[in-house]
Every structure is written in C-alpha cells, then in structure tokens.
Recover the amino acids of this structure.
C-alpha cells in the first residue's frame, strides 16, 4: 500500500551485506589448538560469494537443504553466510549424535548437499550408503577418495571455491522463507526439526545487539565456544557478523588448556558456554592463575547456573556472568538474567542466578495443568509458555496435531518454573523431570541442587519411578567420588532441613558416572530407560516413609 | 505454514506490554520549568488503559486518525501508548506550524479526534471552525468552555480518564497496520504525510536499543528534548518505554536555563537535540559552569554538526556527541556517527563529525543524475538514496506517481553527499539547495560553513539565483552582528583559499535576520521566494567574474 512503510524483507542477506560493506577489516581467527590465524571479513565475504556461485552450479534450488557436519571453523561460517543468502536452508548437524539419529535427521530434513570436516568424515563414512538423498559431499580439508556405497559426488572445498568467481548478485528471498534448520537434541521422543526463517534470524540478531541483551558490537571479539551445530551457537555467527565483531573460532579445541591459550592470544570480550566449561576454567585457574579479565561478560546457558559459580567468576576475573535460558525453538535467545538497575551488593548475584527476564520481543507466562494463567509472584510454579517473532510455530514435516503451540498460540516449553513480580523467570524443572507424587509436584532440580552439596557426591540425578500408591516417587541416582560411600540417613537428614517429608527420595542408586546427552547434559531419559529395563538396581531406604504424604 | 516460525506480529502493543510488565517502577518525570514530578510506568500504563477505553467509548474505529497538538508531556506519552495500541493512528502535529498548514494537514490526515494542551488551545481556536472532521477535542489541563464555530465535543482529559476503567485487553492489530503519522515539515512543496506502521515502530525501537546505535537501556534516563510532534522525537518515547528507561519530559521548557535546571534535578544520561540547543548550553556554560557530566552521550541531529561543537562538548563535560542523520521518512534513525573501533586520538572527532554509517537494517547508496551508482570513495558526491524496513514507501493519500521511491525501490532523500570506504555518509547539501552552475554543482553548505567563520557574520544562507549564462549562480545572504558591515572583497579572498573561482558568489545580500522554519532551521525556500518576488535586494560584487567558469 502506498502511503506506509517500504516492504523491505528482513533477511540474512542484510546481515551478509552489512558485515561485508561496513566491516571489511574485522577479523575471524581460526584456532588450531596452538595459534590463531586471522582472516578478514573482506576475504570471508569474497569466499562466501564463491561458495554461493559453486552451490548454484551444483544445481541446488531455492529452499533446498544443505547439511553441515562441522566444528566451529571459518569454513563453517562461510556456509552460514552463503547458504541462507542463496535461498537454501542451512541444516546444522550435531557431530555428537549417534549414527542412527544422523541417518534419521538427514533423511527427514531431505538434505541434498552436505559439508563435512575432513576429521569428522570417518563418523559419516559408515552411514553415507544410507544417505541416498545426498548428491554432493563437500569436504573441508584434504580431498577424500571414493567412499564405498556412496553414490553422490565428493568435492574438495577449496577446489570448489577456486572453480568459481564470486557471485555478484544474491537472488530474491522472502522474509518468511526458511533460512536454517536445527533438530532438537531429543531428550524426549524423536528429534524434531526447528526451521528458522530469514525474518527470525534477522530479528534475533538485532535482539542480540541490544544494550540490555548481549550488546554485541563492533568493539567485541567473540570467542565462539557454543557449537555452531546447535541452535546456531546462540545466533552469534549472525549477530556478530551483523555487528562487525571480531570472532575466534576454536574448532574442536574446547579443552580448558586449549581455550586458555586461545583467550591469551585473542583477548576476546565475550563468549557463551555451558556451566561445565566455566567450571573447567575455574578449576584450571585454581591450579595456575589464568587471566580472563579481557571478557566484558560471559553468557552461560544450557543448564541452570549456581550462584556460587557466578560469584567465583566475578571474584577470579571481575567478569559478569549473564545467564541465558532458551531453546532450539527460541533461536535461542529468550530470557536473560540482566539484573534490574536498582539491584545492589549481594542482591546482584541473586538476580544473576535467575533464569532471566524476557528480552524485548519475547513474552512469557506460566499456566496450570488446565491452561489457566498463574500469578507471577515468584511462588506459583507452572508450565512455562512463551511467544515471540523468533519462536518456532511448529516442527518441520510434523503433523498439525503435533504442534507445540497452545490453542492461543503460545509455545509449550516443557519446562516448569515461576515468574516473579519483576518478570524474572526461574526455571525449576523440565515437565518430564517433575515427580508427581500424590497430586503434588516434586522438583527434581531442587533435590539435585541440595544433594550435590553433600560431601563425596560428584553427579546426581533425581528421576521418577512408578509407585502404586503415590503414582510416582523420586529415585536419586548418585555418582560418588572415589573412596566415598553414600550415607543415606545423613543425606535424608540434610534434605529434611529444606524439603517437606513427602519430597524426600526413598529410592537410591549409586553408579560410577551418569549418562550424558550429545550436548553434555545429564540424560534423564536414558536413566529412566535403565530403570524401566531393570538395569539400574536401587535400594529402598527403609524406616523412612510415613503412612501419609506430609 | 507449520514448521517454521510463529506468525507473531511486531507491534506497539509489545512495546506497551514490556514497559508495563517489566518496568512498573521506572519513572517518567514531568518538568514544569522549576521542579520534576515523577509518575511510575505502572501509573502511566494504567492511565493509558483508561484512555484506550475512553477513546473506544467515543466511537473511534480501527485505523482512525487521532491528532495531538502538544508539548513533550506525560499526557502526550499516554497518547503515544494508548492510541496505536488500540489500532488508531497517532497523528502528531507540529505546534509551530502556521494556521493554514495546520488546517491542511489535519484535513488531509482526516483526524477525528484531537488532543491539545490547554496553553496551546488559543492557537487552535481560530481554526477549529475550519476543522469539520474533528468530532472530539480533548484538552489537557483546565476544561475549556464552548468554542464559537466548533461543532465537535470538547472533553477535559482527566474527566475522560476518570469516567473509564482501564482497558483489559487490546484489540488485534496487524504489523502492517498504520500506527502513527507525521507530516514532513515541507521545506519544499505541500506537507506530506509519513505513515509509520506497528512493524516499523517496533523495528526502529529495537534498532535504537542496539549497542552501536543509541544503546537505550533500563539504566538510561532520557531527557526528551526533541519534540514529540516531530518524527516521534527520534522514536524515544517508544524505544525508551520498551527498554524501561526513565524519562524527563520538559514540556515547553527548552530554554538553556530551564534545561539546565531539569538536568541538575534529574541527572539524565541521554538526550537528543539540534545543534542550536547544544550551542545554547555551551554558551550558558561559558557564563556559569554547568555540570552535564551525567550524560553518557548526546545525540545531535537536524543540522550538520561542526567538529568544533563536538570538541567543545567533550572538553566541557567529557560527553560524546553522536551525530545522527535521518528524516521524517526514516522514522528517523538512519545513519549515526559512531566512530570505527580503530579510530584514535584526534581522528575520533573527524568520524564523529561525519553524518554517520547506517545502523543495522538500513542501507544507503549514492547515484548520479541518471541513477547510476557512484563509487563510495569519500570523493564522489551524488544523490543519497536509502532503504530499510522503517523507511517510508510513499506518502499518505498521494498518487503513485508522486512516490519518493526509485523504480528499484530506494527512497530518494533529496540530499546529496558522499560515502567513504568505511561506509560513512557525509551529507553535503539538500538537492534543492545545490547550485548548478555551468553543469557543475556548488555546495551551498560548504560556502555557508566557510562564511560563518568570518568576523561579524551571525547567520548565512547561500541560495541559487537564475543566471542566463550559467543556469544558476550563488547568492550569499548574510545577517551581520551590530556595528559590522560586509567587506565583500575580503570575503572573496577568504573563500578563494578553499574554493574554485567559479564557486564563489558574486551576489550578496544583507538582512537583519534569516527566516526560519517551524523546527528552527534556516528556511531557504522562504529566501528563494523573497528573491523571486524581488523582496530581497542584492548587490553584485563587480570586477570579480572572469569570462570562463574556471
């Protein structure tokens, strides 16, 4: 309609164009475990344009899916830039998935081409014969010979680029076109494909640049620790490029001693990590002091962050931890634990330890089992639901009845939590991980947080086991440090200080180590399966249960 | 389509909701010239909901235009919040316009209701009989009696609010629905209506919050100096509310001594102003030192900013000036003079004195008279064109052939300038203000900048006069300080140091003061009209022109 605003589509092409035009001197540094090798935005943009021309020459069409099976590398970034801008769909694949999951996801996604790091090729080789849809395998690194049973073409990446001039003009895309795709890690059920649009990626990038979000700017150097195969690495390849930030891509070198080296060499200002990695760095610091004062902030997400971790990072390096909570379905930025401006002193850590408040553009609510909104008073706990312009409205090739949305259009996160008066969310559990005992909810996370403080306990998971009287009861699974045994009466006494009697587990098991998911989280689904199959013997702490749930 | 992102409309309702929910304690302070009176976001949100209910009860419908003829006040902010969120269109009216322009704009906009400050009512009263479309006049302040010749209803604002409960649920809006409207100040031709959509306002607000733009955050206190009746006051009522910033609304009290008082009382962190106001503050500071160190930045726009002004502000208070260039048509944020990160020392001022580089989401280019793109080398000067999702695609109720867009969809700004290698724009002139002499362009702005440095010259404007041989030649119009006369040979010698001979004016006029537009800019259209009508006598400096344009 003439008379209002331009119909200018939001797209990853705008992201590409701004980084290329305004920040040709910004640098992306590849880390090989020992040294950094810098490549300018100008060089990367030119290579991405060559890649775009090459992919078009391979016969890809608008909307085709292009898989990546790669670490965090400059080449992977080139795919991030070229694939969506060409109107194709960047389908990032988790390199830690089991073979059968990969076969399922690549087949379900319908990928026609696949990028792979040469050192990851051995993981793919056995399943390539099952990937009939893959017409082109493009290898980063030394050219691969023929692969038995694979009928597609194999290309060496650099030769492919050398064979094409940089693309001059991007094709048209609509803002609601698919731009990228990532399957959820599947802690429950089959993996599901989340499809990001050009619009959602652009909006998420703008949101990441906001002062009260990640505040990503030209002055940043981003250490890309989160995997680029998982929820677009917090979207930072896109937001960083749009802002013109320097980036350090550490490949597979995420071990504390390697990361420390990359930090010393590149002096990054911002990173994002799971708590485990931050813990690793703190432990390394305890042995030999590290200088991480270059960071203006460290974003931590993926699991709940203990206040003690936040305090130790601040004490060690003067660095603020920003806790972020999100999902593959939320691009992933959703809520961030930026403290309110009036928070002072010790209170600051309390706010930083919350899951966070919604960034501009996102809305959250909690509802009860019947879908009624619950009070946002910091006490009521309910199902967390959210909505926003970078939230999934469904899964790729799923039936409408499998939509994760409520009838009124909110995403059901599968998490439960509270929202306080100031709008800060506190996630207390995955819905699947709650124990429903006698009509009441028992939080597995709260029990775990209490038990992990007991001496000798290294890891803990609390899961539900079926119970004829109470429906479900908690089972605590412990991994103990060497030379320790579990003193169940003592643990019970400890828990009784903070928990109602009915919440305290009477089922206990000890294991050498807990099973983990492909992204390093404790895998409760696997634990529940072990229990169900009788493979996890547990004891009952007798003399404990009363007749009533009190 | 199931399988991609939610279809969540970007809207001002999201802006309203975030400020109301997350920042109930943030404050908007009204300044009456002497004291600040704070009102919480919670109170303002409740009042905006009452206002929404009241407007609906008056019979307004989706898409109806609601005018405001007001200073920067809390009540005006309530209209900003309630009117678009109800699906109506907030039509801000410039209180400095002449009566006939107001009649035209209000009639062309088709306003059904009109808010007015009681102290501005006398300006409206004479024209109200001509505003047949206005059914409801809502007065902020003491209730007005009947107005002769006005047939609509007159409402006292507070009584209207008192008569309604807060609206519980906003109606649905689409993101491309009109939300606000502002007529260009019309330095050329009739005023034209720019219509902002819900989408453009939301995107502009996000852009304003980005770290490398205004970085508006919960930690800010915004002194709202730019008029809320002009291009939404740099969009800050919306972006500030979305971010949860405190705001100070200074009403009509923009005189240096009043602003100084508001600053001392409220300690704002951010403001935006035209260079004149900043100059006023510096002059006041020279007389009696002022403490403006509370500002983290001062945004300056509306006219080109001299490097000296930027340096003096930094020297006086340690405050950075961010120059911004935009138009009513660009919401207005378009380019900002944030220096590149590698700028150091004296170089920083050079970057800050540029018009700026495009914020994320905006694209700029320069073209020659035939529409061919020009090199972006800092030297080539051409017509500036731009595009982005918060740029006007046309004017309200204008014919398609009057569209300001090029055939390929870029907005023709009417400005000329250069773009350098780093993507920074330097506006050199309005296209209309360029002097086309013998096929070459002469920049009126460059001549003015040189002449204003000569002793005794208070104001200067250079405009084109028709010339039989060269098509156009420059006329310099000077306003001199008392007791000064113009030494034309000396001025000519001075200009010859920096300008080619053909660029130097041979036509000169002296006036007591130069005409100004309603927003305080020197009004070249009025000067050209005076010249055309023979009302501005000028002299020809003889013995100067050579036979050739060399």
């Amino acid at each position: 309609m003439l008379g209002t605003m331009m119909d200018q589509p939001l797209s990853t092409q705008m992201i590409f164009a701004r980084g290329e035009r305004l920040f040709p001197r910004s640098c992306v540094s590849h880390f090989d475990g020992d040294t950094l090798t810098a490549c300018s935005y100008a060089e990367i943009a030119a290579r991405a344009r060559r890649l775009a021309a090459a992919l078009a020459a391979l016969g890809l069409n608008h909307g085709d899916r292009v898989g990546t099976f790669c670490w965090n590398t400059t080449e992977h970034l080139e795919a991030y830039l070229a694939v969506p801008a060409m109107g194709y769909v960047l389908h990032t694949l988790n390199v830690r998935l089991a073979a059968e999951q990969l076969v399922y996801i690549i087949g379900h996604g319908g990928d026609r081409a696949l990028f792979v790091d040469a050192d990851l090729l051995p993981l793919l080789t056995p399943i390539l014969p099952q990937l009939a849809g893959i017409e082109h395998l493009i290898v980063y690194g030394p050219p691969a010979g023929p692969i038995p049973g694979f009928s597609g073409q194999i290309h060496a990446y650099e030769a492919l680029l050398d064979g094409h001039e940089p693309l001059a003009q991007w094709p048209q895309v609509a803002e609601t076109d698919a731009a990228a795709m990532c399957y959820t890690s599947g802690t429950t059920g089959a993996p599901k494909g989340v499809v990001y649009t050009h619009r959602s990626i652009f909006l998420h990038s703008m949101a990441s640049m906001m002062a009260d979000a990640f505040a990503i700017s030209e002055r940043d150097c981003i250490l890309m620790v989160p995997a680029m195969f998982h929820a677009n690495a917090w979207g930072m390849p896109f937001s960083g490029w749009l802002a013109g930030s320097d980036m350090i891509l550490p490949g597979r070198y995420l071990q504390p001693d390697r990361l420390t080296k990359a930090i010393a060499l590149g002096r990054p200002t911002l990173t994002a990590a799971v708590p485990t990695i931050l813990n690793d760095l703190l432990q390394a610091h305890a042995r030999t002091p590290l200088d991480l004062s270059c960071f203006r902030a460290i974003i931590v997400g993926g699991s709940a962050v203990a206040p003690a971790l936040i305090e130790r990072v601040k004490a060690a390096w003067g660095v603020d931890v920003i806790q972020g909570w999100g999902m593959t379905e939320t691009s992933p930025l959703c809520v961030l634990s930026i403290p309110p401006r009036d928070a002072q002193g010790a209170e600051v850590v309390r706010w930083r330890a919350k899951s966070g408040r919604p960034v501009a553009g996102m809305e959250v609510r909690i509802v009860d089992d019947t879908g009624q909104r619950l009070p946002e008073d910091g006490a009521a706990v309910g199902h967390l639901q959210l909505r926003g312009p970078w939230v999934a409205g469904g899964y790729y090739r799923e039936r409408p009845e499998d939509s994760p949305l409520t009838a009124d259009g909110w995403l059901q996160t599968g998490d439960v939590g509270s929202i306080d008066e100031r709008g800060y969310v506190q996630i207390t559990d995955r819905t699947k991980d709650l124990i429903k005992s006698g009509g009441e909810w028992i939080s597995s996370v709260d029990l775990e947080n209490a038990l992990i403080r007991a001496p000798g306990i290294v890891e803990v998971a609390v899961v539900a086991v079926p119970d004829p009287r109470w429906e479900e009861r908690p089972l605590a699974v412990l991994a103990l440090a060497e030379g320790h045994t579990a003193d169940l009466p003592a643990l019970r006494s400890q828990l009784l200080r903070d928990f109602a009697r009915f919440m305290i587990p009477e089922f206990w098991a000890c294991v050498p180590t807990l099973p983990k998911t492909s992204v390093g989280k404790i895998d409760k689904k696997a634990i529940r399966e072990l229990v169900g199959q009788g493979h996890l013997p547990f004891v009952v702490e007798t003399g404990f249960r009363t007749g009533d749930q009190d």
User: Anything to note?
Assistant: Residues 41-57 of chain A form the longest helix (17 residues).
